[in-house]
Amino acid sequence: MIIKNIEAKIRLATIVSVGSLLTALIIVGMNCFYAFRLVSNAQKSIYLLDNNIPILARQTDIQMNRPAEYRAHVDLFHSLFFSLTPDDKFMEYQMKKAMYLIDESGMQQYNDLKEKGFFNSILSSSSVLTLQTDSIALDMPHKYFRYYGKLKIDRRSSTVVRSLVTEGYLKDIPRSDNNPHGVLITNWKTLENKDLQDVEKNSF
């Protein structure tokens, strides 16, 4: 009888010890989790000084504003690539800036246009190209975009308006001075580039 009581007490003590250990581990785990969340939230908070008065500013989640940044990036690239003036130095400058925003598919299209004499025709006809963005459709899960715009080509003899439709994919990369949105356009293709209207100018 005494031995059974001793065994029962040992079993009870073991259960209590194991239970206490598990409870302690759970409490420690919960404390670590809440401490991590507090630190993470604190890192999203910064204080700005306004006349020596600290003002709390909250840092927004980068993904919350990503669609707007993607559209701004696509719009910026197309503006750099297609809005041109009859100045070879300016065109080189625009293309150099544009190439920071796109992969080799951009350089390939640039070389194709160069071989076809596109840039020389701008110089010889004193054309001014202005691009107007109509809309940019985004497929966020696949990071795919389709760009819709109108390209106005103002020549000495006429004004041509073309519809421009392109597509491509978006890849996140580290931000830099040359690529402030931290996005790279990949597999860029022109789907449509056709004349909508061609208006002759008066010669007198």
Report the end-to-end length measured between terminal Cα atoms. Answer: 125 Å
Q: Biggest sheet, in brief?
A: 4 strands, antiparallel
* Rg on CA atoms, Å: 31 Å
Do you know the CATH topology of the largest domain?
Nuclear Transport Factor 2, Chain: A
The fourth-level CATH homologous superfamily of the largest domain is VirB8 protein
How big a fraction of the residues is strand? 25-35%
* Beta strand count: 6
> Could you name the CATH class of the largest domain?
Alpha Beta
Name the descriptors.
204 residues, 6 strands, two-stranded antiparallel ribbon, alpha+beta, Nuclear Transport Factor 2, Chain: A, 4-stranded antiparallel beta sheet
Could you describe the 3D structure shown?
- This protein is an alpha+beta fold and 204 residues long.
- It has 2 domains: 2-58, no CATH class; 66-200, Nuclear Transport Factor 2, Chain: A, CATH 3.10.450.
- The protein has 5 helices and 6 strands; from the N terminus they run H-E-E-H-H-H-H-E-E-E-E.
- It has helices at residues 2-43, 66-82, 88-99, 104-115, 118-124, and strands at residues 45-50, 53-58, 128-139, 144-154, 158-172, 183-200.
- It has a 4-stranded antiparallel sheet with strand order 3-4-5-6, with helices on one face. A two-stranded antiparallel sheet has the order 1-2.
- Strand 4 and strand 5 form a beta hairpin.
- Helix 2 packs antiparallel against helix 3.
